[in-house]
Design goal:
five-stranded parallel β-sheet; single chain; alpha/beta
Length: 187
């Protein structure tokens, strides 16, 4: 059992970085996302399933940075406005609620940033900025054993977003200590 866990963790640690293809196009998209976040009056996040959980984890960090952040679909979420940005996460980029949400945000005039593994998906076509997480594990004989379904995409996206938090911290002058002041009350 212990060996299986070691094999799975080793596989994930090796595979996830290879799916974050950080080339010039990727950097340009990430820089556009960071600028959009820093300059937006309101930031909205959305995703379904585990992609939604990754989006919510990122939303928490953005709130701790002192930004105005909402998760689309929650009961306390205000209306998206033209000077807002919506970051939408979907492995396939085809999930019907994701596509519908993005079309509504665009119709209102909000900026859409997509994080997906499918560059020609409906989500990618609707977004103004696309961050493509490669899907190099497809066909990998170990993926089905160690990383079922969208695990590689979800983990790679979480890693990328955590890296982005540190860049935004520096850009807006936040520190670990100032963020801690916005952490959950019981900490």
């Amino acid at each position: 059992m212990s060996s299986d866990i070691e094999d799975a963790v080793s596989y994930l640690c090796k595979t996830i970085p290879t799916n974050l293809k950080i080339d010039d196009e990727f950097r340009k998209a990430v820089d556009a996302m960071i600028d959009a976040i820093v300059n937006a009056e309101k930031i909205f996040l959305y995703g379904v399933g585990r992609s939604g959980l990754v989006a919510k984890a990122f939303a928490i960090r953005l709130v701790q940075l002192g930004l105005e952040v909402f998760f689309l679909g929650e009961c306390n979420t205000p209306m998206v406005e033209p000077n807002s940005v919506a970051i939408v996460i979907s492995n396939t980029g085809q999930t019907s609620s994701v596509v519908q949400t993005v079309n509504i945000v665009r119709r209102i005039g909000g900026k859409v940033i997509a994080i997906t593994s499918v560059p020609h998906s409906k989500l990618a076509h609707a977004a103004s900025t696309n961050i493509i997480i490669a899907n190099k594990a497809v066909g990998d004989e170990f993926r089905l054993d160690y990383a079922p379904l969208g695990t590689i995409f979800e983990e790679a996206t979480a890693l990328l977003l955590d890296g982005i938090v540190s860049v935004i911290m520096k850009k807006i002058g936040e520190t670990d200590q100032s963020m801690r002041m916005r952490h959950a009350i019981w900490v």
